[in-house]
Design a protein that fits this description.
Elements (H helix, E strand, L loop, with lengths): L30 H14 L6 H14 L7 E4 L4 H13 L4 E7 L5 H14 L3 E5 L2 H14 L6 H17 L4 E3 L4 H4 L14 H11 L12 H11 L3 E3 L9 H12 L12 H15 L4 H10 L5 H7 L7 H15 L3 H9 L12 H13 L9
Parallel strand pairs: 1-2, 1-4, 2-3, 4-5
Length: 380
């Protein structure tokens, strides 16, 4: 367990000094809370008053797709945000997305049920991109061996790579993204993870700890994602949920009522591996609890009180029984013993800085995007 010195917690949200870059003002209010009111809220306004902007965006998408089978592309994990986005895009906006799902082998069974229920009722074609399990398993194991916290990269990288590949293959210019201010304005601190498209880092970890040749695993890179796709291919990523009042409780009720959708215990728990990483590995090995930025986002956007968040944080994300069962399941799927997995849990802590990386260049690009208001989330 990582030792936290001089512990402090924001007096207005639940971000604390497990984020090493956090600062507080004289009233104990964290910089992220202040940044929301200064940089985010004035333009966003809780998604209110953006009807004309939304109409203009939808008109452009429909005009582009007038004589095409699909007018946009939507990656569907079966999680909360992508599920509501699918409903919103089709039922309320009349869009015709090409819907695809990346199966990296870690799907929670009822997540697959949620995907099937929604696509069946909405009558949309679902394309499933199944990633070679032997390659995914080996890459995931390599990241465990590396000792870093950003263990979600083997899944997340495949998703964004397939997204770009589908946009090129089907010549689609608009990608619908479920990212939103309402439920995730505060993202995980940079110390808790790393950029998922830094191929210098990925290649170094695979070179040191991988044992299987990546013959079919889909790779992308920062250049393709941030320059080639938007400026050469003209592909635009659209976050529609930022142009409408998006309330988590109301959206979840709609999904349950309309699609018999099964909710998850926590955001991102539609994946066995992500549930394991965020519900067990990060809190136990590093002392990082991703519920803190999640709950803080809901506090900032008026969907949860600080008292409610503090009460929820009194208990760990998973019970001891859930943790033990998940630990055993992950070890089995990785084809290693529980003792070996425990060795990775207790090995010296590592960060992205211990491996080759392009953090400086990517960081500059990220700051430019924020200044230009192309990125509306709070990153530290």
């Amino acid at each position: 367990m990582k030792e936290i010195k001089s512990y402090s917690i924001c007096t207005n949200c639940v971000m604390d000094t497990t984020d090493p870059s956090i600062t507080f003002n004289e009233n104990g209010v964290c910089d992220r809370y202040a940044q929301f009111y200064k940089d985010i809220l004035p333009d966003w306004n809780y998604g209110k008053g953006k009807e004309k902007e939304l109409e203009q965006i939808i008109a452009k998408i429909k005009k582009y797709g007038r004589h095409k089978k699909y007018d946009c592309l939507l990656g569907f994990s079966g999680g909360f945000d992508s599920s509501y986005l699918l409903h919103f895009a089709i039922k309320e906006l009349g869009l015709r997305p090409l819907v695809f799902h990346v199966d990296a082998g870690w799907n929670i069974p009822f997540a697959e049920d949620n995907i099937r229920k929604m696509t069946d009722k909405l009558g949309v074609d679902l394309k499933i991109e199944k990633i070679n399990w032997n390659e995914v398993r080996d890459m995931q194991l390599a990241f465990f061996k590396s000792g870093v916290p950003h263990l979600d990269i083997p899944q997340d990288h495949a998703f964004v790579a397939v997204l770009d590949n589908y946009a090129e293959k089907y010549n689609i210019k608009y990608i619908l993204n479920g990212g939103n201010i309402s439920t995730e304005v505060i993202v995980n601190p940079s110390a808790w993870g790393y950029w998922g498209t830094d191929m210098a880092q990925i290649n170094d970890i695979l070179k040191q700890f991988g044992s299987v040749e990546m013959k079919t695993y889909p790779f992308t890179n920062v250049y393709k994602r941030k320059i080639y796709m938007p400026y050469v291919k003209g592909v635009k990523v659209v976050k529609l949920l930022n142009y409408t009042p998006y309330i988590k409780k109301d959206a979840e009720s709609l999904l349950i009522r309309e699609y018999d959708w099964t909710p998850y215990k926590q955001k991102h728990f539609e994946s066995i591996m992500t549930k394991f990483i965020e519900g067990y590995w990060l809190p136990v090995r590093f002392g990082y609890d991703v519920r803190k930025p999640q709950y803080s986002s809901l506090i900032l956007t008026g969907q949860m009180t600080r008292e409610e968040a503090l009460e929820k944080l009194k208990n760990p994300p998973l019970t001891e029984k859930e943790s033990a069962e998940l630990f055993s399941q992950v070890a089995s799927m990785l084809e290693i013993s529980e003792d070996e997995l425990n060795n990775y849990l207790t090995m010296p802590l590592k960060t992205y800085k211990d491996y080759k990386n392009q953090d400086y260049l990517i960081g500059i690009g990220s700051k430019i995007m924020y200044k230009l208001k192309m990125d509306k989330l709070i990153r530290k």
